[in-house]
């Protein structure tokens, strides 16, 4: 090179322009991150060095003026890690002196090197040394008082090999000067571009990062020439950007680069991945889908993260893999992660190829992730992450370093109701892994596996069960209730070992499975259970543990086997557990009725006993009916004993604690009996004598009876002072709650409520009065019970309110309000919310409650409708609320149960009385926030994994999908029968209400943006109307079709327009007699039709479908031809295109039917159509003609054959480019099975021809001649860059002021006229307009692209006018928003166009603030922009030619505006 290295470094690298870059890097590593360890670039400093004045640094920015701003700026972000020099600096002057000293030191050092070694390329070696040294080390020395001499000292330490600098990985290669220059230029360009922080500026530069890697890596030996920290500076800058789009681009580029380039290993990379990269990955918004990606697909970041982690780990040396993964997992536990990032990080771990690198510490770290970072309300995502972490543990754990005890502890952290459960693929995968690695696990110190004939897993489980059931013989008295952890652990391991053993026997092809091992697991437990009834001296701890383990085994259910005997392991366990049933029941009866429960802590044991009773009943009913008599005897004895305990009267003023505990346990026992009889009717327990006594006891018992808390002295003197999960308030609430459960059982079995007074049996108490008393007690219970205890009260109110709506309506309304208050006060993240909501819905929307309220049409009826809209409003913030309401109402209205208590002969009457519910359901759907949409997308992705993800199988299906509401409503409408009078009336009412809703929306906002809420509501309206249309008869359509036509006159978005046209086509096809009404739509004046005529012309493009059912086709064709020909000569280009498409269709039908009346027009029409087909020219007319013919609505769509749910709700919204969350796929109609589709419903799938199409639109309104712009350039000098502050002193924001000042100095005056030429695409016309606008003082010229300024033809005609006139770039697609903005600023929008109501130029008076919109050279002003004009002005003509050149037209109007303004100014003077 001709340039000296000294000059290169001074002018290219270390110039004043680069000083900001150097200091920015220094601040990035020292001021913001605090990384100060020379050996490691990315080690965080734990020393806080801060100024006492609490100064802050500007958020994410620093520069050459950092020293100045440091002492005076207080803004956004705390500055907690300053370098020592900054903290110790006593004054601003010293800081400035230090900066100048460093600069002088550098300059003198470069001069000295150049003089000492003339002709020797010392500077290249120094540059290579700089690049091969960690960036933080270089910058620390560079900014130190020693300056570059310290760097020179480092340089002298390198081996003396001239022109052969040492590479980072130990290799050597001479580095050409050109390569160094290119590296520095590219590096500095990228960092300078990142100053802009705008993705559209930065994205074209990102590919240049690849060239940096090409320079930095020695290809033949695969080692680093430059230290990788220089490259990581760029990525860290992107990761910490405030612009999340830039952060996402940086993360994606880093992951993809390392995946494709296979970079050499570097410790700095590992630390960078665990540090800045994982910090960036914690941002949930990075995991969104890219445009065009289908819902349910894995986001790009998730896929690249999986590939990157697997690729990177394989490149690491074997010794480093384990430490890297351990740090990676520990990083996941070091902060609170949201559900989305933790899911995709867990999936990346699960997709790492199997390698044994994690030991005990790694397994504990994975357990910490499960326990500490799974705090999220997204149950499905939490479960999916647990599944992935378990798979990661199986793939990465070195079993020789882990014991079975440590593994079982890890497995217990997984929740069975969310991830690890029997009969899932994950469970089978775990069993297979245990079988393969059986015998390889590290032996525990306490284990003694001597029997080699059995597996180590079986030996471990055997010893685990034995150790679990051990208890000191002295501990017979009451003690603490054991934790459930051990019982869950033992039960899980028993099931795992049994399934592994079964899998081993299956693979060994053994004919008979004796399950010897499973029997040995259960024998210790069975021995204890058999002795419970006869041995009263078994330690309490041992009985508690055995019953806990028994309950966990009995609660195990098979997900796939409906028949118990099909699951061999589970059936064997249950069959074995039936042996000690009598002993268990005898023990429970004694404990519950013999005053053995005496302390508050014993209530936890009471819960254990009562939880066992229904499980034992189910066990006997499924496995051994011989045990049912024992169960009945137990129920009989328990009921009688509990009633006696509750009826005992104690004359003491204050009951002792033991007596109160006995009452609580007895009431809880009766509650268990009532629930067992409700849940197991096949047991026929109602025939027991004790049941009648139970009903009588409940009917005469006082409600809301509470227990007084024991005195402090008694509590202190209690024999067993122990902690319990139940405080006294919870105990009292549970006692009242149990009373209402018993009452619910009584009301459901004896709804008449007839009873007699106990003291005066001859005077019966009226049923209505008794119901009123109970309802008043229910209201009292709602005020005293906590929210998780009110379910039985709501169930009782559901029975009582219908009986009292006529006589005590105010009391019923009070019940409605109080119940609503309880539900609305809960958060949807609370577990009790959904159960309470379900009970509330069943109460308010009970068939009989709705019917009685609707028949009276009183205040209760109004209150229920008010609650309906409150629930809908709640659904906008609590997703899934409306789902619960609609599911219950639709199933009870259209699918009532046979044994349902109802006073109605037909429950469907409620649908008509409360049709607002269905109407709102058809329109339901909110525009989600970005974070809500992201959660939905990830939910869909997990659901698409199917059985591969166990969380989809085991998590309870809540159907909280927002589409569920509309799907249920549509399926409900599909089930209706048009021949049924009730159904017919209901559908007509819904149809009218939906049309009124559309009219209301159109009236409230005449213009609405695509995918706005108004657009979506209108789209849903017409989708529902299209579903209802085939079920309506002619008489009803005759009165409502006019409203459909009126809707067609509105300004509708494309998707709405297609549905309106489709409905018109189907209506005319079914009832051709409505054609006269259709022809009337073309008779309105042009002002009304200018926005809607295309809708009706589109109907004529399917005129062959319309005339299928009519025999008189020729008169209709004549009328259609006359109508279409009138619009073929319209001034609007779009209208002419639609008319030509319709003409082509109608004329082909005329020729087919040989209509003779138009023979005279045949040559004209055919020549016109032929001319359109063969048109030439450079404009967009021919392109748009081809597009409109290829458009799906005219080329592929068939109104009859494509009528299906899939076309209406998925295909058409997709093709019309509606937002993706408005697409409802058929899978959702199949998955939401609460309401089935009718078996005769045939219109289901779209045709394949339509499904295969891609979204496209022919419309030219958003397209210009220069729509295709180059996305990236090959040379870096062509890359778009923001103005660098130190290179240009003129701020871009003051550009308009500069123009005005410049014009004022020249004696020119600017007007208030704006000329908009964005639709013009010829440089010659734009150049002439620029010159004219500047001469007459226009305030600005708006063009479609500023690239026109560089055109030679533009410059030839503008003669430098662009330098004196402000030019603004507004693309054609942005014109609508720009015109609206100018309207708000007071401008009058004037269009140069010939219309029916345009003003003559000689008669029009221009306002001072005028905006002149000029049309395209060929098409003029598009129809969609004409609606936004305030006025149209035309130039009077005398000749034959229709129009002037657009430049000439614009010049005439600009001059006329200027002339009028000059006259006004003279008059004012």
> Mean of the pLDDT scores?
77
How much strand content do the residues show?
under 5%
Shape: globular
Instruction: List unreliable stretches of 5+ residues.
Output: 1-6, 8-126, 141-174, 715-723, 753-765, 898-904, 1258-1307
**Largest sheet, strands/sense/barrel:** 7 strands, parallel
Helix content: 55-70%
Give the helix tally: 67
Q: Helix/strand/pairing class, anyone?
A: mainly alpha
**Total strand segments:** 13
Report the radius of gyration as a whole number of Å: 41 Å
State the end-to-end distance. Answer: 69 Å
Widest sheet: strand order?
9-8-7-12-10-13-11
Q: What does the model show?
A:
It is a single chain. The protein is mainly α and 1469 residues long. 58% of the residues lie in helices and 3% in strands. Strands 9-8-7-12-10-13-11 form a seven-stranded parallel sheet. Strands 1-2 form a two-stranded antiparallel sheet. Mean pLDDT is 77; it is low at 1-6, 8-126, 141-174, 715-723, 753-765, 898-904 and 1258-1307.
């Amino acid at each position: 090179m001709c340039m000296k290295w000294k000059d290169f470094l001074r002018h290219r690298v270390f110039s004043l322009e680069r000083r900001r870059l150097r200091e920015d890097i220094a601040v990035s590593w020292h001021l913001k991150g605090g990384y100060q360890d020379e050996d490691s670039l990315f080690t965080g400093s734990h020393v806080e060095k801060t100024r006492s004045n609490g100064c802050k640094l500007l958020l994410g920015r620093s520069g050459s003026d950092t020293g100045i701003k440091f002492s005076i700026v207080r803004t956004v972000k705390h500055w907690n890690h300053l370098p020592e020099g900054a903290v110790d600096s006593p004054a601003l002057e010293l800081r400035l002196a230090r900066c100048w000293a460093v600069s002088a030191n550098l300059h003198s050092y470069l001069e000295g090197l150049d003089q000492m070694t003339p002709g020797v390329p010392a500077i290249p070696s120094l540059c290579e040394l700089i690049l091969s040294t960690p960036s933080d080390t270089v910058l620390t020395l560079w900014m130190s008082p020693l300056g570059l001499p310290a760097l020179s000292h480092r340089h002298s330490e390198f081996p003396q090999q001239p022109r052969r600098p040492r590479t980072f990985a130990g290799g050597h290669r001479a580095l050409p000067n050109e390569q160094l220059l290119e590296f520095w230029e590219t590096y500095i360009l990228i960092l300078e571009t990142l100053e802009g922080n705008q993705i559209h500026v930065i994205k074209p530069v990102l590919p240049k990062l690849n060239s940096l890697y090409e320079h930095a890596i020695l290809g033949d030996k695969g080692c680093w020439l430059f230290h990788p920290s220089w490259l990581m500076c760029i990525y860290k800058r992107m990761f910490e950007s405030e612009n999340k789009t830039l952060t996402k681009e940086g993360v994606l580029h880093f992951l993809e680069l390392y995946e494709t380039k296979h970079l050499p290993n570097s410790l700095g990379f590992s630390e960078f991945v665990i540090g800045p990269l994982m910090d960036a990955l914690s941002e949930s918004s990075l995991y969104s889908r890219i445009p065009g990606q289908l819902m349910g697909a894995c986001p790009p970041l998730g896929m690249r993260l999986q590939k990157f982690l697997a690729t990177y780990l394989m490149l690491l040396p074997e010794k480093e893999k384990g430490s890297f993964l351990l740090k990676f997992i520990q990083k996941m536990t070091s902060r609170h992660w949201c559900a989305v990032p933790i899911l995709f990080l867990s999936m990346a771990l699960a997709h790492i190829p199997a390698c044994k690198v994690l030991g005990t510490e790694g397994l504990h770290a994975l357990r910490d992730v499960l326990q500490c970072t799974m705090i999220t309300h997204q149950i499905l995502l939490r479960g999916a992450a647990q599944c992935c972490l378990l798979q990661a543990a199986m793939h990465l754990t070195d079993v020789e370093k882990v014991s079975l005890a440590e593994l079982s502890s890890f497995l217990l952290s997984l929740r069975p109701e969310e991830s690890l459960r029997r009969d899932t693929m994950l469970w089978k995968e775990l069993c297979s892994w245990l079988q393969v690695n059986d015998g390889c696990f590290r032996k525990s110190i306490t284990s003694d596996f001597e029997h080699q004939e059995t597996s180590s897993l079986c030996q471990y489980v055997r010893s685990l069960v034995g150790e679990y059931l051990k208890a000191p013989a002295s501990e017979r008295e009451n003690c603490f209730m054991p934790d459930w952890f051990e019982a869950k652990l033992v039960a899980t391991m028993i099931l795992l070992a049994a399934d592994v053993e079964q899998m081993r026997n299956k693979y060994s092809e053994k004919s008979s499975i004796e399950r010897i091992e499973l029997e040995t697991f259960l024998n210790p437990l069975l021995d204890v259970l058999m002795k419970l009834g006869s041995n009263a001296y078994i330690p309490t701890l041992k009985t508690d543990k055995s019953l806990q383990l028994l309950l966990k085994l009995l609660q195990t259910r098979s997900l796939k086997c409906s028949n118990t005997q099909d699951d061999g392991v589970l059936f064997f366990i249950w069959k074995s557990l039936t042996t000690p049933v009598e002993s268990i029941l005898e023990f429970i009866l004694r404990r519950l009725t013999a005053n053995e429960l005496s302390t508050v802590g014993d209530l936890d044991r009471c819960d254990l006993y009562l939880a066992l009773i229904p499980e034992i009943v189910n066990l006997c009913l499924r496995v051994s009916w011989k045990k049912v008599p024992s169960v009945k005897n137990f129920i009989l004895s328990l009921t009688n004993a509990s009633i006696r305990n509750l009826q005992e009267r104690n004359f003491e003023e204050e009951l002792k604690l033991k007596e109160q505990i006995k009452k609580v346990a007895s009431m809880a026992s009766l509650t268990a009996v009532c629930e067992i009889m409700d849940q197991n009717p096949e047991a026929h327990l109602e025939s027991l004598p004790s049941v009648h006594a139970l009903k009588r006891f409940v009917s005469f018992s006082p409600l809301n009876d509470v227990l007084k808390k024991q005195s402090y002295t008694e509590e202190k003197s209690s024999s067993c002072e122990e902690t319990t999960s139940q405080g006294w308030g919870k105990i009292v609430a549970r006692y009242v709650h149990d009373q209402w459960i018993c009452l619910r059982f009584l009301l459901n079995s004896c709804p008449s409520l007839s009873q007699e007074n106990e003291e005066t049996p001859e005077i019966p108490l009226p049923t209505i009065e008794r119901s009123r008393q109970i309802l008043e007690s229910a209201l009292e219970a709602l005020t005293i019970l906590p929210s998780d205890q009110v379910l039985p009260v709501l169930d009782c109110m559901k029975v009582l309110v219908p009986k009292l709506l006529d006589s005590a309506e105010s009391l019923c309304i009070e019940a409605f309000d109080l119940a609503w208050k309880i539900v609305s006060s809960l958060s949807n993240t609370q577990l009790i919310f959904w159960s309470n909501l379900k009970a509330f819905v069943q109460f308010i929307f009970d068939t009989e409650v709705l019917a009685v309220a609707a028949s009276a049409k009183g205040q209760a009826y109004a209150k229920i409708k008010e609650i309906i809209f409150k629930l809908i409003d709640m659904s906008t913030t609590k997703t899934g609320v409306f789902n619960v309401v609609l599911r219950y109402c639709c199933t009870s209205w259209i699918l009532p149960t046979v044994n349902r208590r109802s006073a109605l002969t037909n429950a469907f009457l409620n649908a008509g009385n409360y049709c607002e519910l269905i109407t709102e359901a058809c329109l339901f759907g909110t525009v989600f926030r970005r974070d809500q949409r992201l959660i939905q997308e990830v939910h869909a992705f997990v659901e698409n994994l199917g059985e591969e993800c166990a969380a989809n199988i085991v998590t309870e299906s809540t159907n909280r999908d927002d589409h569920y509401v509309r799907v249920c409503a549509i399926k409900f409408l599909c089930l209706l029968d048009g021949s049924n009078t009730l159904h017919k009336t209901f559908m007509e009412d819904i149809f009218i209400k939906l049309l009124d809703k559309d009219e209301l929306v159109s009236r409230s906002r005449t213009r609405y943006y695509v995918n706005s809420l108004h657009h979506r509501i209108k789209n849903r309206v017409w989708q529902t109307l299209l579903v209802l249309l085939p079920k309506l008869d002619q008489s009803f359509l005759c009165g409502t079709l006019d409203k459909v036509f009126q809707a067609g006159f509105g300004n509708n978005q494309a998707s709405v327009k297609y549905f309106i046209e489709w409905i018109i086509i189907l209506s005319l096809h079914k009832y051709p007699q409505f054609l006269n009404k259709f022809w009337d739509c073309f008779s309105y004046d042009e002002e009304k039709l200018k926005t809607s005529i295309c809708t009706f012309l589109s109907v004529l493009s399917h005129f062959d479908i319309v005339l299928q059912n009519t025999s008189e086709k020729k008169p209709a064709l004549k009328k259609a031809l006359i109508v279409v020909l009138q619009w073929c000569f319209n001034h609007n280009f779009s209208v002419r295109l639609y008319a030509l498409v319709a003409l082509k269709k109608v004329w082909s039908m005329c020729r087919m039917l040989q209509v003779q009346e138009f023979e005279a027009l045949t040559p004209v029409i055919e020549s016109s159509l032929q001319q359109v087909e063969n048109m030439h020219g450079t404009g967009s007319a021919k392109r748009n003609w081809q597009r409109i013919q290829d458009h799906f609505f005219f080329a592929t769509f068939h109104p009859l054959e494509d009528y299906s749910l899939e076309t209406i709700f998925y295909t058409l919204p997709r093709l019309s480019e509606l937002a993706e969350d408005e697409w409802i796929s058929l899978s959702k109609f199949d998955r939401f099975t609460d309401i089935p589709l009718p078996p005769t419903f045939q219109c289901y799938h779209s045709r394949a021809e339509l499904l295969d199409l891609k979204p496209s639109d022919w419309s030219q309104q958003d397209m210009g001649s220069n729509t295709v712009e180059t996305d990236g350039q090959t040379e870096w000098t062509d890359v778009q860059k923001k103005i660098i502050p130190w290179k240009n002193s003129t701020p871009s924001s003051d550009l308009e002021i500069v123009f005005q000042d410049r014009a004022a100095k020249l004696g020119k005056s600017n007007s208030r006229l704006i000329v908009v030429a964005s639709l013009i695409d010829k440089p010659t016309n734009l150049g002439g307009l620029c010159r004219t606008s500047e001469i007459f003082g226009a305030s600005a010229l708006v063009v479609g692209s500023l690239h026109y300024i560089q055109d030679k033809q533009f410059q030839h005609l503008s003669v430098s006018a662009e330098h004196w006139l402000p030019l603004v770039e507004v693309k054609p697609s942005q014109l609508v928003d720009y015109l609206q903005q100018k309207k708000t600023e007071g401008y009058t929008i004037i269009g140069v166009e010939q219309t029916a109501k345009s003003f003559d130029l000689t008669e029009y008076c221009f306002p001072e603030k005028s905006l002149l919109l000029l049309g395209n050279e060929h098409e003029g002003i598009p129809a969609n922009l004409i609606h936004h004009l305030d006025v149209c002005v035309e130039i009077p003509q005398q000749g034959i030619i229709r129009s002037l050149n657009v430049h000439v037209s614009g010049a005439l109007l600009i001059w006329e505006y200027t002339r009028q303004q000059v006259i006004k100014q003279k008059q004012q003077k």
